[in-house]
Amino acid sequence: MSSTVIKGRIQSTLRHFLDAEASGGIVLMAVAVLAIVTANSVFAERYFQVLHVDIGPLSLQHWINDALMAVFFLLVGLEIKREMLDGQLSSWSRRILPGAAAAGGMLFPALFFVFFNRDDPSALRGWAIPTATDIAFALGVISLFGSRVPASLKIFLAALAIIDDLGAVIVIALFYTADLNFMALTGAAVVVCTLFVFNRMKVKALWPYLFLGVVLWVLVFASGIHATLAGVILALMIPLKITPGTPEALHAESPLHKLEHNLHKPVAFVIVPIFGFANAGVSFTNVTMDVVAEPLTLGVAVGLVLGKLIGVLGVVAILVKLSLADLPAKASWGQMAGTALLCGIGFTMSLFIGLLAFNDPAIQDHVKIGILMGSVTSGMLGAVFLLVFGRRPNPTARVR
User: Fold this and answer.
1) By CB neighbour count within 10 A (0-12 exposed, 13-18 middle, 19+ buried), where does 100 fall?
2) 233 within domain boundaries
3) pLDDT single digits (tens) 369-391
4) CA distances (Å), origin 11, targets 2, 4, 18, 122, 392
5) Domain that holds residue 360
6) How many domains are contained in the chain?
7) Within a domain: residue 95?
8) Is residue 122 situated within a structural domain?
9) What share of the chain is helix, strand, coil (3-state, %, to 5)?
10) How much is the pLDDT for 197?
11) Phi and psi torsions of 272, nearest 5°
């Protein structure tokens, strides 16, 4: 991955974002395969035992899913805030196409899931599982095509995935919150108010925010709200200094930019792969056609493939037809269809929501199978579309 600092000038934040996520996506693919192989090997029993080893008050898997993933959500929150205030989503004209496409890409997968599971009230709790897009995986796949895919389409996919992450955060907060502990919730509110005061006082040092962020995580964990949301709340309190007309290199002195830059590699190459390895492992020992064809599994898989394709591509087509937006520059409809299919790669966030929706390990395995089926199918079909409809690279063009 290219350095973010070249001769004192900070590389484009969005370019850095794309590069880091694309590389991390490739690593995540390898780790997911390794997890599945391990779960179906002679090491399977040890693999599942280690994940349930208690370390203090939580098991290893819970430390990964509740604590490490809070750092992932911190980075997600930083990216959302930066893009909304100083990036590709900083104006309504820039937000309308990826924003509407993200909304359609969440609505239709949920509808497909509900259709398949309409007769099972307990399964309906998982309606949000296929609504998520894994930005690392999706950008990892699209990056493999290099100049065959226009940069505008990669930016569109990144912006859509960021808004999708915001939607997932809201869904988790509203629909996957346990019984509330109001004492802990009050303490969390006090910490948030303190962070807000630091922000308004323009405190630039990161350590006060990070220290209170740890306290906030503990209180949110105790409150019944999922602890990872503490990362998003903390991100919104980190100052972002923007001076109109100032070179982007100076913006990099902002606390938000510094923290985002420092978190990219650890999250992309350590935290997300660890989460993937800990949660993607599913044993196929008892997997039969009945399991594959059951409504829960199909609802997730079909929601990811057809729901994302119809939701994203359909909304884009309507907006373009009504002259409310244009296709990303130099992109064809075939490439847009391929990109819409890539949105059906729901790996990380879908797994996360699936674990929140269901506590039964057997049901979780069925959800994982649906996620794997849908994500692999979406990724392969998306790659085929981008390969068939991709523009041929110009061998005489200079690399910039």
Assistant:
1) buried
2) no
3) 999 999 999 999 999 999 888 76
4) 9, 5, 12, 49, 27
5) 21-57+104-175+267-389
6) 1
7) no
8) yes
9) 70, 0, 25
10) 96
11) -65, -45
